[in-house]
Amino acid sequence: MCRHLAYLGPPRPLADVLTEPAHSLYAQSFAPRLQADGRVNADGFGVGWYPPEDGAGPVRYRRAVPIWADANLPVLAGLLHSGAVLAAVRSASPGTSLDEAAVAPYALGRWLFSHNGEVQGWESLPHDSEEELSAAELLSMEARSDSALLWVMIARRLTAGEPAAEALAEVVRRTRGARPLARLNLLLTDGHAIAAVRHGDSLWYRQAGDQVTVASEPVPGEPDWQEIPDRSLLLTTQRTAEIAPL
Which residues does UniProt assign to the signal peptide (predicted)? Predict the structure, then answer.
């Protein structure tokens, strides 16, 4: 399992999103409160952000070390600003690779993606003729992991022009049809909107003024956090939010 978050709003230091809040993503790496499986998230971390310049990004910074072990992050997080961020701390599933290429966020064009959960037996996940992945698509997988496979399946739909929410919902439907016990909490953003799926673990969101945050765990004492129902899809911008059952 992992913990992750996405933020849209006024540009602010990455530290305001990652490390400064009470029970921040940084704190969730070693003391998660709502995590269904695993006690720490020490197998790497990643941050993707869109620089304030129009059309820039996304940029990624990923490491295969615990977030607390990276001496560069506090300085970078204090200096870099963004109005759109997706970040994750990782607890690797058995049988997946442990290098930084396996750490979210994954990227394609303006898209950033993260998966919190596990797909058991992902190496032999059956595909029908419509879903059969080409050799080129399989070779494009950044890492040996269930998350990387899900991303290839989602990215092919985005490339074909499917809306983000439809791409996530269809991949979740097909995956849970083959692996009913799969845990599939997903975050996807293009820097303007966030599409998220809760399927098997905690996921919350908060809209406040002109900003929105979607996260595995809420900030204690901060008002207006709302829990996303299990097996639901959230589509949100800075000022709008729509939740639908999967």
Answer: none
Residues 94, 197, 199: CA angle, nearest 5 degrees: 55
State the pLDDT at residue 129.
42
Q: How many other CB atoms sit within 10 Å of the CB of residue 159? A: 12
Question: Annotated catalytic residue: which of 2, 87, 141, 154?
Answer: 2
Q: How many domains does the chain have?
A: 1
Q: Which residues contact 107 (CB under 8 A, 6 or more apart)?
A: 48, 58, 60, 113
Give the domain CATH number at 47: 3.60.20.10
Mean pLDDT of 66-79: 96
Asked if 84 and 49 count as a contact pair (C-beta separation under 8 A), the reply is yes
The phi and psi torsions of 243 (rounded to 5 degrees) equal -115, 135
Range of the domain at 139: 2-245
Query: Edge to edge, what strands does the sheet with 194-198 contain?
Result: 106-108, 111-118, 183-189, 194-198, 232-236, 241-245
More confident residue, 137 or 53: 53
| 240: helix, strand or coil | coil
Per-residue pLDDT of 9-35, as tens digits, reads 999 999 999 999 989 999 999 989 988
2 is catalytic: yes
